[in-house]
Each structure stands twice: as C-alpha cells, then as structure tokens.
TrEMBL record:
Record's protein name: Uncharacterized protein
Biased composition (Basic and acidic residues): 272-284
Xref: InterPro entries: ARM-type_fold, Clathrin_H-chain_linker
Gene3D superfamilies the record matches: 1.25.40.30
Organism: Patiria miniata
Ranges for region Disordered: 272-306
Domain of life from the UniProt record: Eukaryota
SUPFAM superfamilies in the cross-refs: ARM repeat
Residues spanning the signal sequence: none
Biased composition range(s): Polar residues: 290-306
Residue stretches in coiled coil: none
Length: 343
C-alpha cells in the first residue's frame, strides 16, 4: 500500500500527489504516473530531448508541466546548429495547450518567452500571443519592451505592439501608453489615457518616459467640452527642463511663442479689414445722406450733367442749325458754337 502522501522523484525534482490508501484505482493510477515519469527520465538521459519534451508536455495531470521540468531542460547546453533543449520543451508545452485546455502559468509563460527571445524568435512569441497560449503578466510586457531596445526598426515595429498588447491586457496603463508613444501613436495614446482615466501624474510619467515635441504639444492643447489643456505649458516645460531632454522644453516654448505671435497677427489683420470696411460703409452713408438733402431741381440737374456730356449737348443743338441752307444762318450758328465751346 502507498501512504496517503506519495512522493515521486523525477531527476531530483519532487512531484507530489495525494492518494487514498484504500482505493485500488488510486493505487493503479499512482503506478502509471510513476512509470510515466520513469520513461521521461529514460528519454532525457538518452539525450532524446524532443521526445522527452513531447512526453512531458503530454503528461497526465500535468505532473511534468512545471518549472522543475523546465529547469532540467534549461540546464542542458545546446548543441551547435541545434535548437536549445529548453526551447524544444517550451514549443512542445505551448503546442499542447489546446489539448490541455489552459495555457502555462505566468512564470512558465515568461520562461518560454525568454527562451524564444534568446534565439531571436520573436515570430514564435507573436504566434503564441496571437493564439492566446500564454498567461500574460506585467513582467512579460517588460521582457518584450526591453527586447526592442537598441534593435532595428523591423524588430521595434513588431516587438512594441506585442508589449503594448500585453500591458493592455494586464491593465498596466502607463506602460501601454508609453509603447503607443514609442510607435508615434500620440492621439491613440490620448484616447486610451482618457478611457483609462489618467491622472496628471500619469500623463507626466508618460512624458518623462517618452519625451517628444509631438506629445508635449498634445498635452497642452485644449481638449473636450471644457476646452482645458491636459497639462499647463508651465508644468510641461518645467518637467522637461529638469531632465536631459530640456531641449524639447525650449523647443516647446519657442513654438508656443510663435503660435501666439501668429494668432495676434491674424487678429490684427482681421480687425484692420473690419475697420476698413466700416470706414467705406460710413463714407457711402455720408454721401447718400448729402445727396438726398439737395432740392429736387438740383438733383435733376446734377443727374443730367453727370449723364450727358456738355460737348454732346452742344452737338445736339448745333446740328439742326448747321444743316440750314441760309449762309447767314450758318455763320450765326458757327458763332454760337464758338461761344458755347468757350463756355
């Protein structure tokens, strides 16, 4: 008979389970588990790491799906040109998630991602996350974020969205916002921050972690119906001047000054146009008032003088006289024309 607390040893690692002394089925189950562990040890000692990994990943009751087994694979050095045994085990572990029905715990998931990233297999981590086969945690987000530091644009463009997704899932809001800013998604970050109900110190934390002129300008812009900025210009500039990114603070001040200057010039031009328009309308009004005050005969004469040139009126009067056949009449008419022209 087995005791009520049966202990199995798998290569020095302790795996425990409780069985009922008086239940024959439990006794048989214990024997099967022991045989399963012994077979795993044989495969492992023979260097058949892939088979051992698959055997452990498919273990009943998950007796070999634990950190102890993972540590055994980690202790084996990789052969040249071969995948590290640890990564082989991690792949087997993650592949068995659909059959098992649940992903590895947070600690094991973190170790699996470390193993993949040590071989620069970011694509493998991406696949695991997209298939929801990992347990996300804030340390996992840190691991992905730190992996992108100092890497090329290709790695950054893939790694930062993964870190952002993990941070978002575990509600590490400031870190998620920083990842968005690092990707240039400043407006998306602001929307996320509003939904997450950021406080002012949280915005400042994002600015300090990811200083940029684009973020600084967005933070001082009026938002929402109240029309108030998220942070004041003085607060943002003061905070930036206290860091090595003081140049951004100086640049922000310069842009604010230029913006105010441009706004003042625009206002001046608008007022100048309005003043000119008002003066024109007033001049027209005065002219109309003065004209309407004239006597009716004077207005008629003014209209006639304005519409019919004097020379035209002279021709109208002269023409009938010039057509006269009388010589004396023509002479008198010519004299009359000269007199009128002098006038």
């Amino acid at each position: 008979m087995y005791s009520s607390f049966v202990t199995f040893y798998a290569g020095g690692d302790v795996i425990s389970s409780i069985f009922d002394d008086d239940d024959p089925s439990k006794e048989r189950e214990a024997e099967m588990l022991l045989e399963y562990i012994e077979h795993f040890n044989e495969l492992f000692e023979e260097g058949k790491y892939k088979d051992a990994a698959m055997h452990a990943a498919s273990s009943p009751k998950g007796i070999l799906r634990n950190c102890e087994t993972l540590s055994r694979f980690r202790a084996i050095h990789a052969r040249t040109g071969k995948l590290p045994p640890l990564l082989v085990y991690c792949e087997a572990l993650i592949s068995s998630v659909p059959a098992v029905g649940s992903p590895p715990d947070a600690e094991t998931s973190l170790e699996c991602v470390k193993s993949a990233l040590s071989e620069d297999r970011l694509d493998l981590v991406m696949h695991w996350l997209l298939q929801e086969r990992l347990t996300c945690s804030e340390p996992l987000g840190h691991l992905l974020y730190n992996y992108t530091q100092g890497k090329g644009a290709g790695i950054i463009s893939k790694g930062l969205p993964l870190a952002e997704a993990v941070y978002t899932l575990v509600e590490a809001h400031i870190q998620a916002a920083v990842c968005m800013c690092k990707q240039g998604k400043v407006q998306a970050m602001m929307d996320y921050a509003i939904n997450a109900e950021f406080e002012k110190d949280m915005y400042m934390g994002v600015l300090v972690a990811c200083p940029s002129i684009a973020l600084a300008e967005v933070l001082i812009q009026p938002r929402g119906p109240p029309g108030k900025p998220t942070l004041s210009v003085g607060t943002v500039v003061f905070e930036l001047l206290q860091t090595e990114n003081y140049a951004i603070g100086v640049q922000l001040l310069d842009r604010v000054y230029r913006s105010i200057q441009a706004e003042n010039e625009k206002m001046y031009r608008t007022e100048a146009r309005a003043s000119k328009k008002l003066k024109t309308e007033q001049a027209k009004s005065r002219k109309t008032t003065r004209y309407s005050s004239w006597p009716s005969e004077q207005r008629t004469s003014a209209v006639s003088s304005a519409t019919v040139p004097q020379s035209a009126r002279a021709r109208v009067v002269v023409k009938p006289v010039i057509r006269s056949t009388n010589v004396q009449a023509r002479a008198d008419a010519a004299k009359a024309v000269k007199i009128r022209l002098r006038l």
